[in-house]
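Below is a typical protein record.
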Amino acid sequence: MIYGAAQVLILDKFKKDWFNYIMQSLIAAFVVLLVVYVFHGSEVVIATMGATTFICFAMPKTVSAKSVNVIGGHIVGLVCGALFLMTNMTIHAELPLAVGLAFFFMAVLDLEHPPAIGTTVAVIVNEAHLVEAVLIILSVSLICLCRYAMKSHIKDLI
């Protein structure tokens, strides 16, 4: 019975804001398309952008979608990943330590953007270089710019 009630609630919410659900999904897809074609995004860049795009266009009014958190969080993720990428540790040591450090600095600096932890992981796993780092910052900046440009037309869907 609870499942049925949840289904009705979701359906009612969609009926009320169906245009926003469709429009914001299309905007998100378009922004990822821009990232892929304008910045020739590598796997590292694309892997880190999906969740950021979701937060910015499904939950644009949340703290995690604020531009300072999006860009700042990804910078923290990049730096922490790069620091551990330069060590001689095994990946099994690098990954948890880098994630823990990124978590720490995002929390301390009040730059919470959970998808940026994925940037930390992607940097280490893919052995990212400066080019990928620049592409990540340009990509998240483009996402933030698009969210800002659309802010009067989009709303929290979650």
Helices lie at 2-38, 43-58, 67-85, 91-108, 116-125, 130-149. The CA atoms of residues 80 and 98 lie 6 Å apart. The chain has a mean pLDDT of 90.
